[in-house]
Amino acid sequence: FQLVTQFRQALETGQVKVHYQPKVALPSRQVLGVEALVRWRHPEFGRLDPDEFVPAVEAAGLVDALTGFVMDQSLIRVRKWLDRGLRIAAAVNLSVRSLDDPNFPDRVAEALERHQVPPELLTLELTESGVMADPQRALPVLRRLHTLGVTLAVDDFGTGYSSLAYLRQLPVDEVKIDKSFVLGMGTDLGDLAVVRSIVELGHSLGLIVVAEGVEDDAARDQLAAMGCDVAQGYLISRPLSESRLEAWLQARTTQA
Ligand code: G
Ligand code: G
Ligand code: MN
Ligand code: NA
């Protein structure tokens, strides 16, 4: 696939950029972190979203280069914020392929050391379907990542077929409710029930519960009333380029 042969070069020539979407505490709205979301500005095809190229990058065995790039960019930001007295975490999306690589935890440790970022300010997000497809295979790498002190999050939770028993066995710290349920909860009692039970289940397992897809005040207030810990979504902010994120943070922190 032609795209893939261009990908390494795209990383080097600045065509690939990381955007960041804020995550805020409920009910305080304090900024706790950002999720890093990769974008590729392709010279011919224009803006490519991850769904359009990440699967090809994975299939070509280049996911290490992608994850390494996104992690480096994110840790540079976190370090800059620390230097300004701000403790803001960065969340990086992992491909399940990364968990097949026994050296992945060492590379994470090396990146944290190189950027002088404490491990608790890095979150690694794995999709529910990815981890649960073969939890026994994922477990050794997850355990080593957890031992490093990074935060591990299960993304898109509620969309897979995982049993709650599996979630209990994984060394994870955070569960992210899939946005489809959060988007539907204002009009669909079934979605509302799913959101409510993930919040309760997550808390009973001692996990931080994050809601994605928070698009309006009603959803935010309802989530806050349920005790959901963190909100992410267009209501708070769309994913932003580095410079727009800085402007957004500036406006937030001078307001407070
Ligand atoms: O930002 P957007 O909605 O287009 O993201 C679509 C999907 O791409 C999401 O599921 C997200 O987790 C995934 N994604 C975004 N950035 C990365 C990345 O750096 N690595 C991997 N593996 N997936 C990513
Ligand atoms: O799978 P993952 O959760 O990593 O994907 C995050 C994706 O969700 C990003 O591509 C982002 O653009 C999108 N997203 C973030 N907030 C919202 C929202 O409030 N509504 C909708 N519809 N999509 C969102
Ligand atoms: Mn994610
Ligand atoms: Na998600």
UniProtKB/TrEMBL annotation:
<protein>
    <submittedName>
        <fullName>Phosphodiesterase</fullName>
    </submittedName>
</protein>
<feature type="domain" description="EAL">
    <location>
        <begin position="1"/>
        <end position="253"/>
    </location>
</feature>
